Amino acid sequence: MRVEEVMTTDLVTCDADAAVRDAAERMLRNRVGSVVVTDGGTPAGILTESDVLHAAYATDDPLSTIPVQKAASAPLVTVGPDATLRTATERMRSEGVKKLVVVDGVTPAGIVTTQDVVDNYAGIRREVHDLATDATGWSERSDGFGD
Question: Which of UniProt's keywords are assigned here (predicted)?
Fold first, then answer.
């Protein structure tokens, strides 16, 4: 199963110069757990719910006074749309993140999250089963040399 089959294509973005409060409002309004942070229209990081909580706790300042660029996680961890979900989950694990921005070249195309992987677990298992069945069937076939 490929990332492009399960990713969300509606990215919610926020400018790096915005306040964390504005980014949090976008998350709430769009019912998402993160915003992709842009700097001059170019993706520069990601601000997650956890980042918002950490910024509020660490600074003890109002969210309206904390710049997104100070609270966001950077650099942005990405994956291509044609990558397998296995590759995506390995990347999440190795980078210690729960969300990967999907990029086609340098253009953001969507986002894939651990929740997307969980939601598609049955399809992933089915695909693994089908691959294993195909591999077993191939090995049991005649080799074409007089069998």
Answer: CBS domain
For residue 89, give its domain range. Answer: 3-138
Question: 144 in a domain, yes or no?
Answer: no
In a domain? residue 145: no
Average pLDDT over residues 77-90: 92
Sheet holding 78-79, edge to edge: 78-79, 99-104, 107-113
| Contact call for residues 92 and 114 (beta carbons, < 8 A) | yes
pTM for this predicted structure: 0.78
For residue 143, pLDDT over 60 is answered with no
The verdict on residue 33 lying in a domain is yes
Domain count, the chain: 1
3-state SS of 67-79?
EHHHHCECCCCEE
